[in-house]
Amino acid sequence: MAKKDTIATASVLAFEKKLVPSDGRFYGTTWDKRAEQAIPLKLQEKSVRGTISNRLKKALQDDPMKLDAEVEKPNLQTVDSCALGSDQDTLKLSFTLKILSGVEKPSACNSAEFDASYRKSAKAYIDSEGFTELAKRYAVNIANARFLWRNRVGAERIEVVVNVRNEGEQQSWNFDAKTIGTKSFDNDNPGIAALAGKIAAALSGNSEFLLLEINAYAQAGLAQDVYPSEELVLDKGNSKSKKSKILYHIDGIAGMHSQKLGNALRTIDTWYPEHDEADIGPIAIEPYGAVTNLGKAYRTPKDKADFYSLFDRFARGESLNSKNDEHYVMAVLVRGGVFGESGKD
């Protein structure tokens, strides 16, 4: 058999994601009757006249008359919005989450030697760790309702109800999300521990899969705005009749993209090099530790902290510097993706 350091990375290498959320659906209700009734929320279209608020060119800054003329121009916008009804004070976000096993088996790999080496390393990790650390972190992100994103801010009360939907199983947990922090995963809540145990069993292959139904209730206030996902429109054109903000809906029901829910669930990386200095808490699991709203990659090849630098060593059976590096590598594989090495520079 070839030496480990001579095993070439497969040029075709892919892993299917193991955390599979559905799209989220928005409903309006009241806090006192949140478990009894909920009405689907619809998008509303607004036409508004905005004011000029962008940075001005130097010529406009120095000429008050030109500035007045610019301000007089109508900044007409058509936008989507979503709000609770006049008799509703609580948002209900509902989605399902399927957790699958098989992280140790690439969905595509064109190198039998690399595949065998990786599977051996992955099995050793599963046997020793059992995905307990990752499962605990996923469970905390479910319990603290991180997936509500902007809807979490300013909510007076937040409750998360998790139900197991595997056939023949009846198990559920209720969490007070406001009492569970979003910057630390140290938590001794017995419900989180039980949920994490179910997730770890599915990821490790001790159970075939786990299907969860997740309902989050956020008391936002009567008739308050709520925030579905915004659609990415690549060609808005110059027509004033086109919307400047288009929100996501599912058959007319305001919704949140499954990708956005998944991003919240995998925001578990506190192992990146600048964690203490950054003071931003956990970041989403990404090959380069990318945080797009800050325009920064926290895991760089220069520091040998990116996924590829660590994965190439891990897959060849080499020891990584810490268990945290192993947790990170396996979390990226749970996320899924295409990781083959191109022959082109």
Could you please describe the fold and organization of this structure?
- The longest helix is centred in the middle third of the chain and has 18 residues, at 112-129.
- The protein is globular and about 70 Å long.
- The protein contains 9 helices and 18 strands.
- The model has no long low-confidence stretch (mean pLDDT 91).
- The chain has a domain at 19-43 and 82-267.
- 27% of the residues lie in helices and 23% in strands.
- The strands form 5 sheets. Strands 2, 3, 4, 7, 9, 10, 11, 12 and 13 form a 9-stranded antiparallel sheet that branches. It has a 3-stranded antiparallel sheet with strand order 8-1-18.
- The protein is α+β, with helices and mostly antiparallel strands and 345 residues long.
Number of helices: 9
- Give the terminus-to-terminus CA distance: 28 Å
Strand content bin: 15-25%
The number of E-state strands comes to 18
Shape: globular
Helix content: 25-40%
Radius of gyration, CA atoms, in whole angstroms: 24 Å
- Write down the secondary-structure element order: EEEEEHHEEEHHEEHEEEHEHEEEHHE
Summed over residues and divided by their number, the pLDDT gives a mean of 91
How does the major sheet shape up? Answer: 9 strands, antiparallel
Low-confidence stretches: none
Structural class: alpha+beta
